C-alpha cells in the first residue's frame, strides 16, 4: 500500500466503516441509477459458468463398474434429469 494512505490498519478501518454505513453501496448505486435513468445502461443478464455445478454423472463417473459410455441408450441413468425426476418432486 502506498505510504501516502497511511498505516494499513487505518485504511482498513476506514474501509470497514464505509462498508458498514453504506458509503460503498451509494458510490455504486447512485451513478448506476443516474446512468439507467438516462438510458445509458443495457441490462443484459450474464451468467458466469464457473458457478454452475455439473451433476456427478455429467463427469462420466463410474457406477457399479460400468462406464456411462457402455450403457444402453435407454437406460435410466443416461436420460437427462428434469425437475419432476428429482427425488421428492411432486
TrEMBL record:
**InterPro entries, per the entry:** Transposase_6_like (IPR052909)
Q: Where is the composition biased (Polar residues)?
A: 67-84
Chain segments carrying region Disordered = 64-90
Sorted alphabetically, which PANTHER family does this protein's record hold? Answer: BLL5188 PROTEIN (PTHR46637:SF1), TIS1421-TRANSPOSASE PROTEIN A (PTHR46637)
What protein am I looking at?
Transposase
Source species: Streptomyces umbrinus
